[in-house]
Amino acid sequence: MARRRSSAVTLTDVARRAGVSVATASKALNARDDVAADTRHRVQQAAEELAFQPNALARGLISGTSRTVGLLTDELAGRFAMPVLLGAENALGNGQMSVLLCDTRGDTFRRRHYIRTLLSRQVDGLLIVGDKNDMRPSLTEGIPVPVVYVYGESDDPDDLSILADDEGGARLAAEHLVALGRRRVAHITGEEGYRAARDRAAGLGAVLGEAGLPLVGGVPMYGAWSQRWGRHAASMLLSAHPDVDAILCGSDQIASGVMETLWDFGRRVPEDVAVVGYDNWEIFAAECRTPLTTVDLNLEQLGAIAAEHLIAALDGDRRTGVIRHPGRLVLRESTGPRTSA
Amino acid sequence: MARRRSSAVTLTDVARRAGVSVATASKALNARDDVAADTRHRVQQAAEELAFQPNALARGLISGTSRTVGLLTDELAGRFAMPVLLGAENALGNGQMSVLLCDTRGDTFRRRHYIRTLLSRQVDGLLIVGDKNDMRPSLTEGIPVPVVYVYGESDDPDDLSILADDEGGARLAAEHLVALGRRRVAHITGEEGYRAARDRAAGLGAVLGEAGLPLVGGVPMYGAWSQRWGRHAASMLLSAHPDVDAILCGSDQIASGVMETLWDFGRRVPEDVAVVGYDNWEIFAAECRTPLTTVDLNLEQLGAIAAEHLIAALDGDRRTGVIRHPGRLVLRESTGPRTSA
DNA sequence: CTGAAAGCGCTTACAG
DNA sequence: CTGAAAGCGCTTACAG
């Protein structure tokens, strides 16, 4: 079981080759203390010749910091965790920190197990990535290192949560539609149980209210986050309100279904009906027959911001509360003329 | 900078509380040596009361194994790395190993940097996840720990590569079409530069050959991995060969575009033309108007198998060469009657 | 400027 | 059955 590395070059080897003590070799390599220029040079050369890599375990044991953070996701498989992960990994890597990845698959037992493992590995901090942006129970209690929540909000206001600004994103989309002169705007979206759905509906409602415009149908059409629902809801909408001239969709997937139905009904997009999606999921948004104007959640930035706040907390600069990171509107043909690529 | 953990409960604390030496405490907790049942019990209780977690860094320093593997991906953002990652993480987690995640973003400099970091962190092994299944240069040289390649094949036959069996997967699909009595089969697929495209075409060709059937159009229609190409190729195909009765597509995305065009041309799926996709990308395959029969690459299994081989190699059981893991055909409506959900 | 010593938290022969 | 000692690979006061 003891699988010692074969090629383990240690600082002792370097010191021997350079003809100095390990203490001096250590100082020379770490540019601390006063070391004679000549000695430093000899040590560095020896280290290079031996391809010496300091053992991070030994360093961590001494310093008490492993330069590692644990990244705990509820559900890696969904499409939201990935970009967040990517942004975080990138930001942490730039800060010389490594990422220990754990996917709990929504399982509480697994989560506790992973937290224990991560702490025993002396992670310097924890990033908790949610699979939806609803509130979630805080896990911070009993964790002796900084914790930052991303995408899903911790229910403890003493935690720091980095969230996508769904209401603001929907406002961007709605303002765009209003600016285009659309006056009969409807909203087809996902399950009302999701905070994302409610927040987006609220953002749209606010903008329409400010513009003195009604929401077609009176209420958002809540349903499912699927193309199927998009198709179904659109055909109901067109029957009940044939005068609709814009549809804000709760997701690109829904928008994709909506556009299929509009096509079937002979409505032109965007001439007759402007359509806006949500998520900027390229595969739907950029590839469909009529490329889709949509709201990008800036998830990579979300991950990066979370990582930066974690690093700041490690340096003693700890924040609490909620940070809502704005999305951005991506203009494509479904609301207007082809934009120059 | 020295951020020592506040709540660091060490084995010394446990030993003191249990009234024994650290050596005995260690043995009691690790169930080694002979320790009096009573002593063991006292130690365990003390450990529990103090919520003791052994410091994995210290353990690793002694044992020479960190129970950690590095997972190096070329491109996490694509849709293939994720399931592989998931399967690997899961299999490794079950084996008590943690995953250090690194996304090189296809950058060679970054890759070298990450490999150095991972080795200095004393990873026990490396998993290299490709972003496509083409051959790629081996990275193994100079790496003193076992390495397993997943999804992309190493060009060094002394490495172990775990790959999806694209030719076999296409055979499954083709045999299904032939068994359904389709005789005019065409192939619309992605870029010929991709091995996946060529292997799938080869699988289809082989089955058609065995059945004495021609490939409609004589050659595979190579193009791009996009809906757009699917739409375009399908309309060319229908003009040139209106008698086509089945289309094997190189991806679900292509299939999605193909089906849009079939719809526009008034061809019914599957009655007039059977369509098979590739990838089982649920969002396209299960959600489109006519749910899609397709080939699942079993990517999670691929990741899990790679992890298991890595663990085996750690235990001295090292394999080399290529393992092709079969895909599976997922039957939906695009080739036949609705299957019972 | 350099090196011997102590120590990070743990495990493992080795005495007793 | 238990504990003192040595050691994993490194860093950091502390003498010299």
From TrEMBL, chains A, B:
GO terms for molecular function: DNA binding. Residues 9-63 form the HTH lacI-type domain. Gene3D superfamilies: 3.40.50.2300, lambda repressor-like DNA-binding domains. Keywords: DNA-binding, Transcription, Transcription regulation. SUPFAM superfamilies: lambda repressor-like DNA-binding domains, Periplasmic binding protein-like I. The keyword Transcription regulation applies. This is LacI family DNA-binding transcriptional regulator. InterPro entries: HTH_LacI, LacI/GalR-like_sensor, Lambda_DNA-bd_dom_sf, Peripla_BP_I. PROSITE patterns: HTH_LACI_1, HTH_LACI_2.
